[in-house]
Amino acid sequence: MKTGLNHLYIPGPTNVPDVVRMAMNVPMQDQRAPDFGGLTIGIIKDLMPIFGTTKGRVMLFPGSGTGAWEAAITNTLSPGDKVLMARHGQFSTLWVDMAQRLGLDVDVVDVEWGQGVPVVAFAEKLAADKDRAYKAVFVTHNETATGVTSDVADVRRVMDVVGHDALLFVDGVSSIGSIPFEMDAWRVDLAITGSQKGLMCPAGLGILAASDRAIAASKANTSRRCYFDFGDMLKMSEGGYFPYTPPTQILHGLRRALDRMHAEGLDMVYARHARLAEGVRRGVAAWGLSLCADHPSNYSDTVTAIRVPDSIDARDVIRIGYDRYNTSFGSGLSRLAGKAFRIGHLGDLNEGMTLTALAIAELSLAEAGAKIAFGSGVAAAQFWYAEANATVARLAAE
After folding, report:
1. 2 inside domain
2. pTM (two decimals)
3. What's the structural domain count of the chain?
4. In the Cβ-directed half-sphere of 386, how many Cα atoms lie within 13 Å?
5. Rounded to an integer, what distance in angstroms lies between the CA atom of residue 18 and that of residue 21?
6. Which of 31, 192, 261, 383 sits a CA distance of 20 to 30 A from 24?
7. pLDDT digit string, tens, across residues 41-74
8. Do residue 211 and residue 199 come from a single domain?
9. pLDDT in tens, 132-149
10. Distance between CA atoms of residues 160 and 288, nearest Å
């Protein structure tokens, strides 16, 4: 029999704070009532700075980030349209698969897992596209499978250099709300996230922000869609309502989560994620293990994917953590199965929680057969947190 808390260190769904869970504990209500719209309107308003936009139109689709992917594609693109995408991890691979299954002509750049979006290859392809056949460029901002964050601003820069007018789609499911995202500055046309990651809520909402260009494209596009139609959603959301039944309890939770994030301050939220992530990475380095991410410039501040020694099966590490220590680590996905495990560090998280993750990972790795010095990773992270928090305190006092 397991006792105590289940320690959740997967990169999503993430921990739901008690105040958010309590906010969802409300009676069912009439989603057509005259006072219901204020809830949704306030949520949309407070999501805009998290997307980094004052101009984009935010839409809340009951579903998931995958549903928001499909909404973005079916509203703005038609079967046969040519798009540019990269495969460099499981989630970028799934996005390519969806685009192909929806009938797009996908030009795929395959990249070694652990690398980011291939900006140079994208630049070459966009420059060679004299007829402007590409209708959209897709970027996975944070590849959750490998713990890699790509530079969206760099992709926008190369699009501008060659003067390409393709739409820019960005999957921000495991980045938005945890890593700085600048929709307006990067001129992102469609940005996608979900309620269950940095927004600290249960799964159930696919959240999408669309630029004026994307809205215009959706009005001109005749691809079939119904549930995910932008027109229906935007018309109803102006008053704070939905074309269909919304997940009301999740909306109440999201309201409380947004209050919490804005009270902390978005800059502080991002700084906290960066600080916690660096502690985890220093702990992994102290073990003598390597990351899936191939370069520090690509390191994710929301999830760390850790390669295990060749003699160790990462699935054993995950199993031991769960069975013996009541702890969930993220699994290695697809080609990383058995080769890596992941520590998610996004959302409602602090230093004590990441130190616990490292301590239990040490126990699990050792029991799986890895040569790990107990306390080595924990100590490395502690030194970092002590130094980083002393700096924060000193700056706050100045």
Report:
1. no
2. 0.95
3. 2
4. 6
5. 5
6. 192
7. 999 999 999 999 999 999 999 999 999 999 999 9
8. yes
9. 999 999 999 999 999 999
10. 42
